[in-house]
Design goal:
Layout (H helix, E strand, L loop, with lengths): L1 E2 L11 H13 L9 H20 L7 E4 L2 H12 L5 E5 L4 H10 L2 E5 L6 H11 L6 E5 L11 H11 L3 E4 L11 H4 L3 E5 L11 E5 L35 H15 L3 H21 L3 E3 L7 E5 L5 H10 L2 E2 L1 E3 L4 H7 L6 E5 L7 H13 L13 E2 L5
Parallel strand pairs: 1-11, 3-4, 3-5, 5-6, 6-7, 9-14
Antiparallel strand pairs: 2-8, 7-8, 9-10, 10-13, 12-13
Length: 385
Amino acid sequence: MIYLDNAATTFQKPEAVYRAVLQAMRQCASPGRGGYAEAVRAEETVYRTRALASELFSCQPEQVCFTSCATEGLNAAIRTLVRPGDRVVISGLEHNAVTRTLHAVGAAPEVVTAPLFSPDDWAAAFDRAITPGTAAVICTHVSNVFGAVLPIYRISRICAERGVPLIVDASQSAGILPVSLKRWRAAFVAMPGHKGLYGPQGTGLLLCGRQPDPLLFGGTGSSSADAQMPDFLPDRMEAGTRNVPGIAGLGAGLQYLRERNLSLDLQREQQMISRMADGLVSLGADVYAGEAQAGVLSFRIPDTDPVEAAGQLADSGIAVRAGLHCAPLAHRTAGTFPDGTIRVSVSSLTVPQAAEVFLRRMGGLFLKKPGAGREKPCYFSKNHV
């Protein structure tokens, strides 16, 4: 199988991740629940992962809270800051983890839009929209549909200047681009463990720049005599027994990242995406690509349903994702709603030959050369959005 669905989950993990999960299942009990060796080992495993995350993402270990996924972290962050009727500014590329939560809270989101791969336009649009009294700004760092990179640092400066808290969805950027709670001065940064961090599914992190309201209530192994949840982190956000095998695997994924040159990994991923974009254009596809782009690429095949095309690719041994990608707002912003797109996404473990195999099979299954039934392919290049 040629796996090109890393924006959903990095199916291919470093070998150390598999070993760490199994070792934790065999050797770790419940962290913070006993003084015997297996409980202590679990506590040490959890803390080691927390410390690695704090080092990678520029925060203190106690500001790192474990979650089951980025969605849980975003729910906690939004429900801490947003109340019914509040004005919230969001990008037009947000995932349902943001939009559905805002709907459930009863907030009034204002959607900021700009050309996909133009950071200057995105920064200017947020500058116009963010006003004092805004309850929160919520912004994805990288679009899970198009790979467009938003200017988070510039947006964070605007928020700080106007006293507006910032929530960042780093689901597609953590482990790929620099992520810094301190530099962004964010209220919260949420990320999954199973994508760019190479951990198992069922893991995630919420970086807390301020005190969150807990989603769950229960035992923490601390302050057990109190009826209220602890008022200190990370215990306040970690009720119940944590996923120790998953956290152990996540720790191994973080260690893998710590030992790599992320700039070189990003450059390599961008080269593969650029190669696939150019190849798809030469075959006559509509391609959404630009300069400010990470390792995610969307495209459409003329007169072909994206989901049906993805099914045919799966039958030929190519794993991609098609449709709306749980982000209908992003497709509305880009004009690809309601059918959506086909998405390919790579990781540091994707071999360059995968791009060539993918393009050969695309040509064999679907696409014609430019001019065969179309005037011109639609290509959003570095100079055209």
